[in-house]
Design brief:
- The protein has about 500 residues and is of the alpha/beta class.
- The chain starts with 6 loop residues before the first strand and ends in a 24-residue tail after the last helix.
- The protein is built from 17 helices and 17 strands.
- α5 packs antiparallel against α6, α8 packs parallel to α9 and α9 packs parallel to α10.
- It has 3 domains: about 170 residues, Response regulator (Rossmann fold); about 110 residues, Transcription Regulator spoIIAA (2-Layer Sandwich), CATH 3.30.750.210; about 160 residues, Transcription Regulator spoIIAA (2-Layer Sandwich).
- α9 links the parallel β12 and β13.
- It is globular.
- Strands 3-2-4-5-6-7 form a 6-stranded mixed sheet, with helices on both faces. It has a 4-stranded parallel sheet with strand order 14-15-16-17. The protein has a 3-stranded parallel sheet with strand order 9-12-13, covered by helices on one side.
């Protein structure tokens, strides 16, 4: 292994001379971030289960080189397919940089028969692929595990690179920018129990707290459900991953039993966008404890939190309750479709305090459509009341509103940087000197970049290419000046209220 700083359990290394397709699975960020998500594990395992395919991983940061695989050091350009998972808009910069460092022409129109096919999936492009078409040969719109084997088969059977790309355009859910296509249907798996789930997952053998360790620590990732049944007006997952689908309890138990046999861990991390909606969550959590395993859960909807659930979570080793009130205003919460009242939030936190769970993590959004100064002040009032009532350590995560394609607020404007900064300042001042409260915020400039990439069109490609050569926030500013594209104004451009949307071809 080229990176001698750590070793991994369940990594797969195949004889290159005995396979037909080399697949480079790329994550355009840190090793830690990539290995924390389920997608890398899922595609890595599914592809390596094929006798004809070797899948090796590449990361932008924290491995020896983004141009060489973790497993064998295989050069990125030596793959037949280079597949990226794009989870966050701003990581398009790292994606472009990885292509450059790997010796692959950045522009899809510049590639020849000697170059791999560049494939991208993930929530960012499933919502709006248009800003990225200059760089990508094919996009998977929706749930890529449905079609990944079809894609590999097509490439393996093609007579040329061009033949492969033309054939990819014929697969439902695959968008090929260089070939005229009508409507692109977003892929959604209906029978969730029948979908493949990785059980022999890759785990880095590193010390606890290492930057290479997963956010959840050494644990088995178990996808409980996909989608969300609440469809809040701002939420991407609630719109593009509908309907909500859950695995049966029997299936989840089978995955965990096999998973802990094949993966050397003693903890299970449940993955879901709306975990609290699982009808048998308490039963599953209790069963995990009975297997002498620890349990980690994501954010739980506050009105689904019960004293018994928290008692189980505490017994399973959980020390923090995570909830997302989104706003301190019940009026605004109702307007956004959250359907969560103040009493549900306060009850959940009181239950956590009574269960001796010492930490609370909360998520709020500022700059929402229709938000008033009173609504912003309500965030500070809510957190202060929770802090003084319970004495818990509270992390307040504050993010600016980012309009997302396909949501009901896709045409809404993002407030200016000045307005967003003033709202953050209001919250900071209202919680100044409140004990055991820490505020974390996303820089409004980053939110501005994310919003432009989220709702922009293919003209942004010029900005991305220049920004990738500089890096950082200043790179986006320089790219805006050099290209003449008014990048930072896209998200609050009033013309978006009436003009056709760039992603109109996606159903």
């Amino acid at each position: 292994m080229p990176n001698e700083a750590f070793r991994e359990y369940n990594a797969v290394l195949k004889d290159f001379s005995k396979i037909d397709i080399a697949f480079g699975l790329c994550y355009p960020s840190t090793y830690r971030s990539g290995m924390t998500g389920l997608a890398i594990h899922l595609f890595y395992s599914a592809l390596n289960n094929r006798d004809d395919t070797s899948c090796e991983r590449y990361f932008r940061y924290d491995t020896k080189s983004p141009a060489n695989s973790v497993e064998s050091g295989r050069p990125l350009r030596d793959n037949h397919i280079v597949g990226f998972s794009l989870t966050y808009e701003e990581n398009i910069i790292e994606l472009v940089q990885m292509l450059e460092k790997g010796g692959i022409p950045v522009g899809q129109s510049e590639r020849t028969d000697d170059d791999p096919i560049v494939l991208v999936g993930g929530p960012v492009v499933s919502a709006n692929p248009e800003p990225y078409v200059d760089f990508i040969d094919a996009f998977v719109i929706g749930e890529g595990d449905i079609v990944i084997h079809k894609i590999v088969d097509v490439v393996g059977n093609a007579e040329s690179r061009r033949d492969a790309i033309e054939s990819l355009a014929e697969i439902e859910g695959v968008y090929v920018p260089s070939i005229p296509q009508n409507k692109i249907v977003r892929l959604i798996m209906k029978d969730f129990d029948s979908l493949f789930h990785p059980t022999a997952q890759v785990v880095a053998d590193v010390e606890e707290g290492s930057k290479l360790e997963s956010v959840f620590g050494q644990s088995l990732l178990v996808e409980v459900s996909r989608g969300c049944g609440h469809s809040c007006k701002f939420c991407l997952v609630g719109h593009i991953c509908r309907p909500r689908r859950t695995r049966s309890i029997s299936k989840l138990k089978a995955i965990i039993e096999k998973g802990v046999q094949e993966t050397p861990v003693k903890k299970v991390s449940l993955i879901a966008s709306s975990l609290g909606d699982l009808d048998n969550l308490e039963e599953l959590a209790s069963w995990v404890i009975d297997q002498d395993l620890q349990l980690s859960t994501p954010s739980v909807r506050a009105d689904r939190v019960t004293p018994n659930l928290l008692k189980i979570m505490k017994k399973a080793g959980q020390r923090t309750l995570t909830i997302a009130p989104e706003t301190g205003s019940s009026r605004l919460r109702k307007e956004m479709g959250k359907g969560l009242d103040d009493e549900g939030i306060f009850s959940a936190v009181r239950y956590a305090h009574e269960a001796d769970i010492g930490s609370l993590k909360t998520y709020f959004i500022i700059g929402l459509p229709g938000e008033t100064e009173e609504d912003v002040l309500a965030i500070g009032k809510m957190v202060k009341k929770l802090a003084l009532e319970t004495g818990m350590r509270i992390t307040v995560n504050v993010n600016p509103f980012i309009p997302k394609a396909h949501t009901r607020w896709e045409r809404e404007a993002q407030p200016t940087l000045e307005v967003l900064r003033s709202k953050i300042k209001i919250i900071q001042q209202s919680l100044h000197n409140v004990p055991r409260v820490r505020i974390e915020t996303l820089d409004p400039r980053n939110a501005r970049v994310q919003a432009a990439l989220s709702v922009g069109d293919r003209s942004i490609g010029r900005v991305i290419r220049v920004a990738a050569s500089y890096g950082g926030l200043s790179g986006w500013r320089r790219a805006e000046r050099e290209t003449g594209v008014r990048f930072f104004e896209i998200a609050n451009d009033s013309s978006r209220k009436s003009e056709p949307l760039p992603w109109k071809s996606i159903e």
